[in-house]
Write a structure and sequence with these properties.
By secondary structure, the chain is an alpha+beta fold. 25% of the residues lie in helices and 27% in strands.
Length: 244
């Protein structure tokens, strides 16, 4: 992993997206992550990764950040962040470039819908530049208690589990099968999905068949993948326009 990435800054509405270029930029990204996740989550994958900052033009403050790891060959993903929790041997058979998205987060007080649009437009440019065929990563539910997300896990189990020959196998001893939640009650409010996961699924993404609690991060992870070929053409054209 760790291919060189050059990415021009891009603007949408009152926001701008750019790569972190300096130690100060990375500190800003880490500070936003700490605010969003409630913990200092710097790790060994930060140094080789590429970090994107989306900032408010008015305040020059970060409102979104995420980390990218680009692999030329499938086997490289076995040394990435997600591989700590999931056995990615099946997905690693893919012999095309893939991009792992990590530590995606939004400022808790920021609710501009252009933020996600700009994030996905930026990702569309990276996908085009590297010819990536798959985006993947761990989507995180807040809180390390899986029971609080039972409705969401039932939805994922019923509609969004990926192809049997591609989904990760069990690796973490803490893993819980989504099938455990197949009979969870669904109330009128409906399940709450993290924004990034909603975007993945809306564009044709899928999830693995189990989740992994992460007490250190106070989250529950679910493996998520988006085959680029699955993105609906109208959505792809919109992202390409944003990407410029």
């Amino acid at each position: 992993m760790g291919r060189e990435l050059r990415l021009a800054s891009r603007t949408r509405g009152s926001l701008t997206a750019r790569l972190c270029q300096t130690p100060q930029d990375l500190r800003a990204a880490l500070a936003l992550r700490a605010l969003a996740f409630g913990a200092d989550d710097a790790d060994a994958f930060d140094a080789p990764g590429h970090h994107v900052l989306i900032e408010s033009i008015a305040t020059n403050g970060p409102v979104c950040t995420f980390r990218l790891a680009i692999s030329d060959r499938g086997a490289e993903i076995l040394s990435g962040y997600s591989a700590q929790f999931y056995d990615l041997s099946a997905l690693a058979q893919t012999r095309h470039p893939m991009i792992e998205i990590g530590r995606f987060c939004l400022h808790p007080a920021w609710h501009d819908p252009d933020t996600l649009r700009l994030a996905w437009g930026t990702l569309a440019q990276v996908v085009a530049d590297f010819g990536a065929v798959t985006l993947f990563g761990c989507s995180s539910f807040p809180g390390a208690d899986p029971a609080r997300h039972a409705q969401a896990f039932r939805l994922l189990h019923d509609r969004y589990i990926g192809p049997a020959d591609m989904i990760p196998a069990l690796k973490s001893p803490a893993a819980l099968r989504l099938a455990m939640y197949a009979t969870a009650d669904v109330d009128g409010t409906g399940p709450r999905l993290p924004p990034l996961l909603r975007s993945y699924l809306a564009m044709g993404g899928w999830v693995g068949d189990h989740v992994v609690p992460d007490p250190a991060m106070n989250t529950v992870h679910v493996f998520t993948a988006l085959p680029i070929a699955a993105v609906p053409p109208p959505r792809a054209r919109t992202l390409q326009r944003i990407a410029g």
